[in-house]
Design a protein that fits this description.
This protein is of the alpha/beta class and 605 residues long. 42% of the residues lie in helices and 23% in strands. The longest helix is centred in the N-terminal third of the chain and has 22 residues, at 143-164. Residues 328-586 form the EAL domain. One of its GO terms (molecular function) is cyclic-guanylate-specific phosphodiesterase activity.
């Protein structure tokens, strides 16, 4: 009897442990998954995957044949590959060594014994992770198989770098930084975590005066300084533009933070041997570990601390999150005042970026962008107050206020007899899932006497997997009102082709990182063609965001990708500028103008 009980308890423990390695049920990134499937098939392997290695954790964004989301570093063969500091690592028979036979994936049925992996490095030498395959039977790869696996690993590294790393600095982008920060919160033996947000001042002048190349070189220089200061055991990231982030799991005292300020304050060299000093607002938040505060919230707290510093003159400044809670409360109070229509809190203003079909020389739409004209802070960008609205539960009210303003502008243009073009809107996740959204949109269309076909709602790629059934219901209801649906920022999220296939949409918007510089990068060009194929299969219009260069436009023309938006044609316009643009477009259409450059329409806008 005792033996039977012991046997049952042992079996239960084995089942619990095996549950970490259950068959994969999700559908990860389609491009990366395709490469892993190709590796498994060409190697004749049983399972395979991509591992992102960070300190004590292994994160696996893609697996084939087995589901691994996160494992301890000591349980993974990938940690041995990283420790070997070589680009290739193979264990022919894991049962032949005590250290490898003890790993759960070997010890537990079905007992995988043969491992082969290739280290993934970015173009700037950053280690991104590993591509690996495994077999249940022992064996050894032939030379041709090793070459094939290395070639596939290069494709994975290029794709990972585009998705998880910033193109200019090579550092982790915001999404990858937050993911690794979430893992860092669980570090064994660490008592405190310090998260920092760096906001450079003076950078925009470099871009404007010396051009983008000089700006990119400056960002790369600052990235190298921040990385060198943080050290190999810390986490750093480039959040976009002139903003960086870091996370420290060791010393984060005043002296170390002052060393960061000094590193940033060193002048940077510009063209013609000129120099310029950049400074930074640095916000930091400290949390005792373990903490229940989410990684994204920690980064937001550090950003709040940086935003509370104000003007920086002469040197970089550090401010710790804590006292700025009062500042955040004031900011939130002002935002609520805007939502309630209080004049003292300022007002929201709309700008619209034109969308063009350059093959037909036609204006095909506008994207609505909101700004906050604050009485003390001046022009506040959406990146500063939209997250605050979301975290405080006010994003639905904000989105409806923005939509009302857009509808008023559209009604005014129509009453003036101007041509009608559709306008696209960005809704937050909570708004898209709000049960009253269809009724609110319907009421607003009736109030301003607008056909639904003149409005387009953008659903970001990352939202596709969040409550898909509810999202599908909302989208279906909006389509019944005549609204168009666009998938925004496609190519940078974590969705999959199945999720896209279940959501009807009219337009696929390619994120700017797959458009800007596409003429110069074979990797970017190949990924663009994959996205273009998704649009063709879905019978959706492809719209390319972030067009700024003639050479990229010429490349898009050869790909028959004619619908674009970006500064190449026009920056975002206030309502009066749109009125001038529509009037010029109407005159052009009435005179049946042919040929010429559609950019001439934007000259007087």
């Amino acid at each position: 009897m005792d033996t039977r009980i012991e046997r049952e308890e042992s079996e239960q423990r084995r089942v619990r442990e095996l549950s970490r390695y259950a068959l994969a049920r999700d559908k990860p990134d389609p491009q990366l998954r395709f490469i892993v499937e190709l590796a498994v098939q060409t190697m004749g392997a049983d399972i395979g995957g991509i591992s992102l290695v960070y300190r004590s954790h292994i994160s696996l964004p893609v697996t084939v044949g087995i589901a691994l989301r996160e494992v301890e570093r000591g349980d993974s063969f990938c940690s041995e590959l990283v420790a070997s500091e070589s680009d290739f690592f193979e264990v022919e028979d894991a049962l032949a060594h005590d250290w490898s036979a003890a790993k759960p994936i070997v010890r537990l049925p079905p007992h995988y014994r043969h491992y082969a992996g290739v280290a993934l490095y970015g173009n700037r030498g950053y280690q991104l992770g590993t591509l690996w395959v495994m077999w249940q039977a022992p064996g050894r790869l032939e030379a041709a198989q090793r070459t094939m696996l290395r070639g596939l690993a290069r494709l994975v590294a290029d794709t990972l770098e585009l998705r998880y790393c910033d193109a200019v600095t090579g550092m982790y982008n915001r999404g990858a930084f937050v993911q690794h920060l979430q893992n860092a919160k669980g570090e064994a033996g660490c008592r405190e975590l310090a998260v920092g947000y760096i906001d450079l001042t003076g950078f925009h002048q470099i871009n404007e005066v010396y051009g983008r190349d000089a700006g990119d070189a400056t960002l790369s220089e600052i990235a190298a300084r921040v990385t060198g200061w943080a050290g190999a055991d810390s986490l750093v990231g480039h959040l976009g533009g002139d903003r960086f982030a870091f996370a420290l799991l060791d010393r984060s005292d005043a002296a170390r933070l002052q060393a960061l300020c000094q590193a940033i304050d060193v002048p940077v060299t510009l063209p013609s041997d000129r120099t310029q000093v950049l400074h930074a607002r640095i916000g930091i938040v400290r949390e005792s570990l373990p903490t229940r505060v989410a990684a994204a919230a920690l980064l937001d707290m550090a950003e709040t601390a940086a935003a509370a510093i104000g003007d920086v003159a002469g040197f970089s400044v550090v401010r710790e999150y804590g006292s700025e809670m009062r500042e955040r409360s004031t900011f939130l109070h002002d935002l609520l005042g805007v939502l309630e229509g209080q004049p003292a809190a300022g007002r929201l203003s709309m700008h619209y970026q034109p969308q063009v079909n350059f093959a037909k020389q036609m204006l095909i739409g506008l994207e609505a962008l909101v700004r906050w004209d604050h009485p003390q802070r001046g022009a506040v960008p959406p990146s500063a107050f939209v997250p605050l609205a979301e975290s405080s539960g006010n994003s639905h009210a904000l989105d409806m206020l923005v939509m009302g303003q857009v509808c008023r502008d559209m009604r005014g243009w129509m009453d003036a007899g101007l041509p009608q073009v559709p306008v696209s809107l960005n809704f937050s996740r909570s708004t898209l899932l709000h049960p009253g959204l269809p009724e609110a949109v319907s009421a607003m269309l009736d109030e301003y006497r607008l056909p639904g076909a003149l409005l387009e709602v953008e659903v970001t790629e990352s939202q596709l997997l969040e409550a898909p059934e509810t999202l599908g219901e909302r989208v279906a209801a909006l389509r019944r009102l005549g609204l168009r649906i666009a998938i925004d920022d496609f190519g940078i999220g974590y969705s999959n082709l199945d999720a896209i296939g279940t959501l009807p949409f009219d337009r696929l918007k390619v994120d700017r990182r797959f458009v800007h510089g596409v003429a110069d990068s074979a990797v970017t060009a190949s990924l663009f063609r994959l996205i273009q194929g998704v649009a063709e299969v879905s019978h959706a219009e492809l719209l390319c965001e972030g067009l700024e260069r003639q050479v990229d436009l010429d490349w898009l023309r050869h790909q028959h990708a004619y619908c674009v938006q970006g500064w190449y044609f026009c920056s975002a316009l206030p309502p009066q500028g749109v009125e001038h643009l529509l009037r010029a477009w109407g005159q052009r259409a009435r005179h049946a103008a042919a040929g010429g450059d559609v950019r001439e329409l934007f000259a007087g806008a």
